[in-house]
Design brief:
The protein is an all-beta fold. Helix content is 0%, strand content 41%.
């Protein structure tokens, strides 16, 4: 009466493709209206002047110009202020 003992089951066999998130255009690069500057999940970077935020939190150029980044303080709901990167187009 030969048999194979229990070998268990593999649980880490699934994998998902990358979402292609991140900064697409960097500071100093030229941009036209509607071009995606940043693809992100949530508000890791804020939309400044000359940009607009889409429904999936992507930051697009609202006008032609040059991309720039700067840090600014943002007040949270609790009153604590934290530094966040702001994307703008001049």
């Amino acid at each position: 009466m030969s048999h194979v003992k229990a070998g268990g089951s593999a649980k880490n066999t699934r994998d998902s493709p990358g979402k292609r998130l991140g900064v697409k255009l960097y500071a100093g690069q030229k941009v036209t209206v509607g071009q995606i500057i940043v693809r992100q999940v949530g508000l890791t970077k804020r939309a400044g002047k000359g940009t607009m935020l889409s429904r999936n939190f992507s930051i697009h150029a609202a006008k032609d110009g040059v991309v720039g980044f700067r840090t600014r303080k943002v007040t949270r709901f609790t009153g604590r202020s934290v530094r966040r990167t702001e994307v703008f187009v001049d």
